[in-house]
Amino acid sequence: MPEHQEENTDQQQISSTGIMYTSSGPVDASVEVNAVNIKGRTALVTGGASGLGEAYVRALVKAGAHVVIADRDEQAGSKLQNELSDSTTFVRCDVLSWNEQLAAFKKAIGVTGSIDIVMANAGIATNDQVFHNDISKDEPEEPDLPVLKVNIIGVVLTAKLAMWYFEKQNAGENKRDRCLILKSSMAGYLDLHGAPQYSCSKFAVRYVKTPILSSAMDTFIAKSGAGYAEAADAAAALLRIVSDDSIQGRALAIMPRDWEGASNGYVDVKQDDFEDSPWMHRAQEYALKPAKYAMTSTDSEGTPLKTVPRQD
């Protein structure tokens, strides 16, 4: 789900540099990508050394961006950097480490002087222990929760850093449109049996064949007849978002192209608008209003730099 940060418009409620985001309406997936707005920008992709992350890196480089690859896999990351030459910079990064993520962002700023696109892509999938119980034991065992840690905490740290750097840059002379994208999953919208961590973290790319899928899941999807989407279409959806600064607060689903309405391999999910539920739509409108003040930035002592009163 993307959030662009830009200068003041009539639809945005703004603090000194913070923004209350609103949905821009459904994305037309049939529109061809205009990469002119991507050329010369700097992007950071977590988990960018393999799988969908690698596809995102390659697409951004092809569109003319410089990409910082932040990944734990030093071998794959270095290999990709060597292949793509001066268009990429690899930084070893565990997304659960604040200091390592911070170092990756600093590296991006140090290389080009700006950071414009952040793709929070890194995530994992493992056998879920939450509902797997060994009742032969005297006491329940504490479950391991790596998926929640990596796919939620890691993403939150990425988002925090992205918004700080976006605000910092837009508060100075380097004002331009910037974009944060959080890679979620159809598992965040659909019931997925036996994988509460997976669904809760909204990470899984169900129906896109990548190294994150286990052989058992691969077999299950093949037998179900659902088919696979293509990593190239996921990359195309990314470019569609970052090339169009009018897209705000939307979720795009990557689907097999033979599914209805997915001729380009991705569609607008349209599940966050509550069009069929007037009371949920109304509740969402209230939830999006600032409680008392719009989002604010603060100085080093936590004092708001500026507040914007609620507009009812």
UniProtKB/TrEMBL annotation:
This is Uncharacterized protein.
